[in-house]
Amino acid sequence: MSTLAVHDHGVVHHEEGHEHHHKATFLNTYVFSQDHKYIAKQFLVTGIIMAFIAMTLSILFRIQLAYPDKSFPILETLLGRFAPNGRISPDFYMSLVTIHGTIMVFFVLTAGLSGTFANLLIPLQVGARDMASPFVNMLSYWFFFIASLIMLSSFLVQKGPASGGWTIYPPLSALPKSMPGSDMGMTLWLISMVLFIASQLMGGINYISTVLNMRTKGMDLWKMPLTVWALFLTAVLGVLSFPVLVAGVVLLIFDRSFGTSFYLSDIVLNGKVMPFEGGSPILFQHLFWFLGHPEVYIVIMPAMGLSSEVLAVNSRKPIFGYHAMVYSLIGIAVLSFIVWGHHMFVTGMNPFLGGVFMITTLIIAVPSAVKTFNWLATLWRGNIRFTPAMLFAIGMVSFFISGGLTGIFLGNAALDINLHDTYFVIAHFHLVMGSAAIFGMLAGVYHWFPKMYRRMMDERLGYLHFWLTFIGAYLVFFPMHFMGLDGVPRRYYAFTEFESMKRWLTVNVFITWAAIMAGIAQLAFAYNFVHSIFWGKKTVQNPWNANTLEWTAPIEHIHGNWDGEIPTVYRWPYDYSKPGHDTDFIPQNVPFSQTMSSNLPHDFEDNPGGLEEHTKWTNAQKANEAVK
Amino acid sequence: MGFKQLINSKKTLSLFAAFVLFGTNQLMAQATAAADTATVDKSAMWTGVGYYVLLFFVASLCVAILGKILRVYDLTQKMQGKKGLNWNGIMGVCCALFLITGMYGAYWSLTVQGSMKLPEAASAHGGDIDSMFTTTTILTLIVFVITQICLFGFAFVYRGSDKRKAYFLPHNNLIEKIWTIIPAAVLTILVVFGFFTWQRVEDSSQQKGDLNIDVTGHQFAWELRYPGADGKLGSLNFRLTTALNKLGVDFKDRNSLDDISADTLVLPVHQSIRLNIHAQDVIHSVYMPHFRLQQNAVPGLPTFFKFVPTITTAEMRRKTDNPNFEYLLYCNKICGGAHYNMQKVVRVVTQAEYQDWIAKQKPYLSDPLKKELHFADAKPAAQVNAASNRLALNN
């Protein structure tokens, strides 16, 4: 491996020589940049904007749920035909939940999260000058950008955006006449997703090849920070599972536009007998969830990686059980491919198959539990520094516990019969993959902001942002569990038609106001983010006293990341508070020969020469002691 | 330097104060203006929105002022040679406070809102599911409480200080093994328990399914079809669907001739029932939460669910203390604009009441439908006549 790395150095240096001939124009520096740091910022800003849009959509439908009988003239002013007489129409309500889900899952928590941090951290933390293929990396962003525009443009078509739920199950999504959103809106949704998946694949292939081929001297796999491990495994998941969704989506396009019957059979729509025969709607669900389940891990694994790093740095302690953390990530990644059927327990899938999926699903809870316990052990006897990033990482762990535990209910096929598609599910996944992933992402933003923008974010606004969001998210999602236990289904436009659901209206009002509070808290973040980019306090090179390589790079961004040679790596990234050392951190590029007083025999497990030196040194020390 | 900053922030502070004064003046003026124009609908709306926007600005202003005050305090402390605000300490205490209030909130929610959950299961298999649920709840709540206490407890206890150094603990294989094996063991118990529960619920050979009932979903209603005296439902063919033959019943199948259509899903108590679930247009889902029953209705893929209702509607009304209580069947898979209102009343009655009720129901093969079929085919028409005679006798 090391020979490969050395070889790469040569190549990169050679390329850099060429770089100087290129003229840096406005266009290739600020728009079509191929610099991974700049592309990361493009992904981040686009992701944040999409997050704000999707959040606004959620507040709109929360208003409908809280006040189903009230009319808000402003809604008609803002939304026009989608909210006649100031009330959101049932079809538009479905569009709102659909687009909220799609944007949040794919555009924010997949592209915004992986896209930002894989681009920023992989080259900087493994010690590479850029991505394996900077041009493809740039394309990845621009495909994502176009996909975002197309997704948003569906609000401008006559019949409104796609409205079959973010899972777009056919036949609802396949028959344009079955609901207004299944017309032009669904077409745009499908086009947007195909472009989005292309973007993810280009990004993913880049991340994988960069991690495998471009690590600096000494950076073997077991010296990589957990962030890189998580982002690497996420990319592998994406590359293996996203193509399956393309297949599913293309067949759906055929069914919609070319009269095929892949997913359709025996259909009588509005009294009209349709000619489709022989297809199976369940086939789409298999294809969708074959991506869809790895997808939720694509969303949560980067958040786990970022939080692991932030927790270790700010506890001033090594992450507990580094190897166990990596193995549990690998375990989650592998298992995530064989659990998709737990989304389909009640679809009419063979009950025996349901039983098998239930077993694999509950097994995946074991590596998740190991990760949680390891995070707790990392905090134990630490010297915790509460930066906003640290608070968000702690919040991430809290959400992961709360939401993960309800997964044990839903993964159980017998319990899922009554909980499937109720608010219990909403509560579960908004905590475990929604809130936990967004908190991981925010932890990352607060932590690596100085690396991205060379300035610090305001800490006190960060604290305010954290507590309002954290409490708000719990207030929103915790009561939903009980609505689910009362059999209240998700995606209901209003609870007014059911006598038994009317008593939940007051809870809905409460949840809506909690959501509005949490939404307003995000403005504190937006202000802090924008303000700090331009007027924030200037950062020092290593503001958090962290060990990883990105903090050895100069503050000033240069193409190629380090001027001169790329630092060589000698140790793992978690030597915090090592006894015998004068500071409480030892960066990865500090050789053991400079830290003789803090070296442990364990540090030289696969290095007999080093171990010999170490014993020699300790013996000498002992001899000295004896002389004294 | 610090002194200069202090003066600066004092200046900004007074600026803010002036701004607030000006702001309140403006607000007062606007409030009176709003009162004048309140008669006009549109402007009333805008003042309503404007009111909230202003409220937001006032809140942001308060936050900004509070921030300034904190900074001023911080700087004066530092000027006097004392330490500034100890944010580590403050946030550590916040974590502890959150732990306490959060735990109380969770307790409140579990007891108050938790008591609003569905009443006891009204079906034979529902009891199994409920006991499975209770076991899982107890186990997960224990883990929930312990881990959250550890998380926020550690955050509070080990909040940062300059005097301490963290304890270097990279790994401990024994502990790792313990907390891999314990969750694995607990989950194995849950898996085994759950697997057998699931098998019992879904195993179609265990239950007889004496009474076959067809439930068909379409946008946006459910259609019910009961078997006639022969106890058998006739076969379906979606191509035969017309305005009168809504389900596409195939009348070449003799079993279909005496089929009955109904408005309410009436079920005899303690009898094994097989719901045959169909969908005509998009996917729907038959959800009867009181019976712990859910099965998707998929076009082109008929599904079924067998169960035994155990509590009559009248009994459940007494148990829930609600004279208007009704069991419901509603749609639980997104199916279009009116998805939120696709319900059917389910009534569980005694065997005698059921016989009374079924006798009063109308045949699926209604008179207009008969007429339609006369035109379509002469042969089955004769059978239709015979069948309707028999049905008439039954009535």
Written description of the protein model:
- The complex is a heterodimer of chains A (628) and B (395).
- Chain A is 63% helix and 1% strand.
- Chain A is mainly alpha-helical.
- Chain A has two domains: 534 residues, Cytochrome C Oxidase, Chain A (Up-down Bundle), CATH 1.20.210.10; 79 residues, no CATH class.
- In chain A, strands 1-2 form a two-stranded antiparallel ribbon.
- In chain A, a hairpin with a 2-residue loop joins strand 1 and strand 2.
- Chain B has three domains: 78 residues; 106 residues, no CATH class; 184 residues, Cupredoxins -  blue copper proteins (Immunoglobulin-like, Sandwich), CATH 2.60.40.
- In chain B, a hairpin with a 4-residue loop joins strand 6 and strand 7.
- The termini of chain B are far apart.
- The chains are: A mainly alpha (628), B alpha+beta (395).
- Chains A and B meet through helix 4, helix 5, strand 1, helix 9 and helix 10 of A and helix 2, helix 3, helix 4, helix 5 and strand 7 of B.
Order of helices and strands of chain A: HHHHHHHHEEHHHHHHHHHH
Biggest sheet features of chain A? 2 strands, antiparallel
Q: Note the total helix count of chain B.
A: 9
Assign the CATH topology of the largest domain in chain A: Cytochrome C Oxidase, Chain A
Cross-sheet strand order for the largest sheet of chain B: 8-5-1-2-3-11
Mean pLDDT of chain A: 91
If interface size is counted as residues with C-beta under 8 Å from the partner's C-beta, which chains form the largest one?
Answer: A-B, 123 and 116 residues
Cα radius of gyration of chain B in angstroms = 34 Å
Total beta strand runs of chain B: 11
Return the CATH topology of the largest domain in chain B. Immunoglobulin-like
Architecture of the largest domain in chain A in CATH?
Up-down Bundle
CATH 2nd-level architecture of the largest domain in chain B:
Sandwich
Strand content of chain A: under 5%
Helix proportion range of chain A: 55-70%
Number of domains of chain A: 2
Rg of chain A, Cα atoms, Å: 26 Å
CATH structural class of the largest domain in chain B: Mainly Beta
Number of strands of chain A: 2
Shape of chain B: elongated
